[in-house]
Amino acid sequence: MSPQARASAPETLRGGGPLPAPAPPLRVLLADDHGMIREGLRMILEAHGIEVVGEAADGAAAVRNAAALRPDVVLMDLRMPGTDGVSATREIVGARTAEVLALTSFDEDELVFAAIRAGAAGFLLKTTAAEELVEAVRRVAGGDGVLDPRVTRRALAALADVRPPGYDPDPVPGIAELTAREREILASLREGLSNARIAARLGISVPTVKTHVSSVLVKLGAESRAHAAALARDVPLG
Questions:
Q1: CA angle, residues 46, 30, 112, in degrees to nearest 5
Q2: The HTH luxR-type domain covers which part of the protein (predicted)?
Q3: Collapsing DSSP states into helix, strand and coil, what is residue 93?
């Protein structure tokens, strides 16, 4: 075969079949009212092969742009002028336009659970390292939840009640309907484990984990994995 023919021939596997087409890059929309933050996020994501398809400086623009561009993930600031990040998250998730990963600062703990109830797949601090941010975007795009442990501790502490001895929390609606396997799945969600780690722990496949997660969300009436974990934070699952 001539060099020209070899150059034009499709690449093949060693067994003779064609190589699979490369996966398309993840597509992300940035929503933050500070241009410098959007620019920094764009540089980090694009340096790791993630495509930034658009930006928004407020929640209303985030909703419009998400509907028009259909990204895989929206990186959502929670405090923005006009329509805030929580309201925008509720609209985007409700329309099944994209997954939402909320970004927060230490002084925004009161918004964290509001964002989770609105359907955010998780949240990170804006001080998160670049590699952790990229990994979080990929996990959320793949159907996992992401909870920054530093924010989780602060938010839970802020929401914690002083309970008398022997206090038994009200049962979460739907908990009694969970199967034994679904309770194991929920316990793993509460630990913040990815689908792959849950599958390895329980000795089942990732698609089976996804099926169980979907069932847990439906039975609990939860908008996301993070919401389910928050609902079950006081529930004994063993």
A1: 125
A2: 171-236
A3: helix
d(CA 59, CA 57): 7
Angle at which helix 85-94 crosses helix 109-117, to 10 degrees, equals 10
Structure tokens of 218?
């439906």
Per-residue pLDDT of the chain (238 residues; tens, 9 = 90+): 554 544 454 555 555 556 666 678 899 999 999 999 999 999 999 999 999 999 999 999 999 999 999 999 999 998 888 888 999 999 999 898 999 999 887 666 677 778 888 889 888 888 889 999 999 999 999 888 888 877 666 655 555 544 444 445 446 778 888 888 998 998 888 888 888 999 999 999 999 999 999 889 888 888 888 888 888 777 777 6
Structural domains in the chain, sorted by start: 27-158 (3.40.50.2300), 166-231 (1.10.10.10)
Determine the Cα–Cα distance for residues 29 and 18; give it in Å rounded to an integer. Answer: 33
Q: What pTM was estimated for this model as a whole?
A: 0.65
Within 8 A by CB and 6+ apart from 204, the residues are: none
- What DSSP designation does 74 have? E
Q: DSSP labels for 127-166?
A: T--HHHHHHHHHHHHTT--EE-HHHHHHHHHHH-----TT
Count of C-beta atoms within a 10 Å radius of residue 44: 17
